[in-house]
Amino acid sequence: DIVLTQPPLSSPVTLGQPTSISCRSSQSLLHSDGNTYLSWLHQRPGQPPRLLIYKISNRFSGVPDRFSGSGAGTDFTLKISRVEAEDVGVYYCMQAAHFPYTFGQGTKLEIK
Amino acid sequence: QVHLVQSGAEVKKPGASVKVSCKASGYTFTTYGISWVRQAPGQGLEWMGWISGYNGNTKYAQKLQGRVTLTTDTSTSTAFLELRGLRSDDTAVYYCAREPTLEPSMDVWGQGTTVTVSS
Description:
The complex is a heterodimer of chains A (about 110) and B (about 120). With about 110 residues, chain A is mainly β. In chain A, about 0% of the residues lie in helices and about 40% in strands. In chain A, the strands form two sheets. In chain A, strands 3, 4, 5, 8, 9 and 10 form a six-stranded antiparallel sheet that branches. The N and C termini of chain A lie far apart (about 35 Å). The relative contact order of chain A is 0.34. In chain B, the strands form two sheets. In chain B, strands 2, 4, 5, 6, 9, 10 and 11 form a seven-stranded mixed sheet that branches. In chain B, strands 1-3-8-7 form a four-stranded antiparallel sheet, with no helix packed on it. The radius of gyration of chain B is 13 Å and the shape is globular. Chain B contains no helices and eleven strands. Helix content of chain B is about 0%, strand content about 50%. The relative contact order of chain B is 0.32.
């Protein structure tokens, strides 16, 4: 199975400042169709996860443009350009390139 | 508007079975798949399996093989998760999530169903 590794905590960030979260895969997430199916999800306490980014860098409908994704192969990054209070919670990367799908262990956004 | 509405909370004894439903609305059910994901208390997300809304093809997590069955009823746009031989470590919130067929991701999620396994 593909293992996705995320730090458990983000670097502490002040509201309005940028931050990034990393996700490293144990093997390439390049699918045979040429796409890389790496997504980012956000989960607030007591709520279901919601999709932020799919295929590395595509923002899902309604996601603010302060969220962006980048990366290739086995190394991926989620960036938040200006952290807002509503961004608190846990961020998960997820791969759907190969069955079984797998998630990173999640990174909790830490606000200063 | 796309919605996935799941059935209510369940309390089961060890060894019993549970069946969770996920009713879809706002889109053509047969053009998407459904993945099931669970989250134990205080833990991360665990993928359980996927089912095609088009033809019912399934993929399962190996650790659950033999205990889990995913099905759909296209006449009611509903997906079902059945888990048998429940153990205490199956206590979790169970989510269904819509999955675009051509661009796998989990773009819309149900509200979650809490399953508690306790004697």
